Amino acid sequence: SNMSYNTIPQSGVSRNSQPWAVMAGIFGICAAVVFVAAPTSTSMYSTVATKPIAAPVSSLQVGTVTRMTGPSVALSMPDYEAREAVLVQRTQIESGYAPVGFGALVLLVGAAVYSFIKPAAHAPLPIPAPLKAVVVPAVDRMVRLTTRMADARTAVAMLAVSSEKKVVGIKSPVFSETCDQTGITLSRFMLEVARANPDLQELESVFSSIQTACKTISKLVKRSSIDGMTGLQSGGGSVNVQGEEQKKLDVITNDVLKRALKFTGRMGVIASEEEDTPVEVDNTVDESYGKDVLVEESGGRYISVFDPLDGSSNVDAGIPVGTIFGIFAEDDDCKLSDSFFDESKDMSEAMKGCLRSTLKPGTSLVAAGYALYSSATFFVFTLGAGVNGFTLDESIGEFILTHPNIKIPPRGKIYSINEANRENWDAPMQEYIAGLANGKNRGKKVYTSRYIGSMVGDVHRTLLYGGVFGYPADTKNKNGKLRLLYEAAPMSFLVEQAGGKSTTGLVRVMDVPPKSVHQRVPLVMGGSDEIDELVELYQK
């Protein structure tokens, strides 16, 4: 930081002595000029020399000499000698002015030369006390506590403090021209993103596979009644880890998306809502690649979490459903103590590694999005630099950019929530929804209720029209019902990038660290003013 301060110079020769020397020289020259320029009549020698001298008298008297200088002027010998002495003394004085003037001139020239040629000596100045202290600016820091058992009786705890990671901005793609017939396709969009952000080049292949899977799922959903893919898996009795009966399409779409992500070669771990545990991806390439072609080993840079068919209970009725996904970068941010695994003694080391990679808060997401299968197939996503929406053009088989830079207004006029659970909500939530319904809220607006029952469909409307979507905790589901990793965190990332907010009522959803793969959380998201009002009610 900039700071100004005063210093006290040490004793020594100052530069101010040079002007005094110059002034002394000038004064000496002036004095010499004054004396040298005095009138010549001041010289007695000149006075005597200009007087005519009379011829000498022939008569002489002893002891007295008389000289005639004129008819009336005569000088005796003693007077003449006195005047000669004065003349000699005055001449000697006047002759001394020349050295004085010359010395002053030399002094002046010397001072000038000294001033312009030799720089003044600079003695080091003492450093003021404030500069001796090093001030470290305040920065956000992260504290990580890791515990483990060294043996049966000894516990070891390690505390690490580190500065928060520098957030690197994503450059938005720029399109200098477009095709009138195709517009901006998702494929071209991701190509431009990779060109603008070389670090994200691998995401291009990831998104290519995701959009292919979403096109496939869109076809499966539309033809589910025709192709006999409605109803429960295996005629009923097939239950996923959530305790929910699986539809036929749940199993099929999960397999489609999982394989599409695996085939990218960029995935290290894949976690699905329909799977009991995360799956580590084997990215080993065929041996023949190494013989003739140089292959870059990425080692699985990314981790994918997804819900392959959100709202699948509605699919048989033709109600909109969707796919939700989130992409994490694989790094060392997630640190879990060994005690985290104490309850799973038979868990393999590979599975421990998968969990360590997967259990990350939403703030670690590098991309998130959803596909909505409705009147059209929409693909909406964010890379951390705004939200863009694409619509599938089935005639060419490409997603076309139709909703660039989606923004949620601070306040809307629609709330989307299952009001059948109103009596089971906590008091702040009941008061909040009642205020939206009757207009007793900050915006003084009377809201209307629209609820599909499919998170993707309800959030998509909220993104486009504004308002509030929520699935809060209640007495039946004290931790909420939506999964943090697969649904709440990715959707919260989208909403925040569109200018909105997302909360559990008490904390920001993106900040919640998952403790298990299928952890549930309460969720309310919407415009910034609307969510701020809810948070204040909980704080009271």
TrEMBL record:
Report the superkingdom from the record: Eukaryota
CDD domains with a match to the protein in the record = FBPase
What are the protein's UniProt keywords? Answer: Carbohydrate metabolism, Hydrolase, Magnesium, Membrane, Metal-binding, Transmembrane, Transmembrane helix
Question: Which enzyme class?
Answer: hydrolase
**Residue ranges occupied by any Fructose-1-6-bisphosphatase class I N-terminal domain in the UniProt entry:** 184-404
The processes (GO biological process) annotated in the record are:
fructose 1,6-bisphosphate metabolic process; fructose 6-phosphate metabolic process; fructose metabolic process; gluconeogenesis; sucrose biosynthetic process
**Which positions make up the signal peptide?**
none
InterPro entries the record matches = FBPase_C_dom, FBPase_class-1, FBPase_N, FBPtase, Fructose_bisphosphatase_AS
According to its UniProt record, the EC number is 3.1.3.11
Q: Where are the transmembrane segments?
A: 20-38, 97-117
Instruction: Indicate yes or no for the key word Transmembrane.
Output: yes
Q: Which GO terms describe its cellular component?
A: cytosol
Cofactor(s) needed: Mg(2+)
Q: List the catalysed reactions.
A: beta-D-fructose 1,6-bisphosphate + H2O = beta-D-fructose 6-phosphate + phosphate
> Which GO terms fall under molecular function for this chain's record?
fructose 1,6-bisphosphate 1-phosphatase activity; metal ion binding
The residue ranges of the Fructose-1-6-bisphosphatase class 1 C-terminal domain are: 408-538
Its annotated pathway reads:
Carbohydrate biosynthesis
Q: Which family would the database say this protein is a member of?
A: Belongs to the FBPase class 1 family.
What is the protein's given name? fructose-bisphosphatase
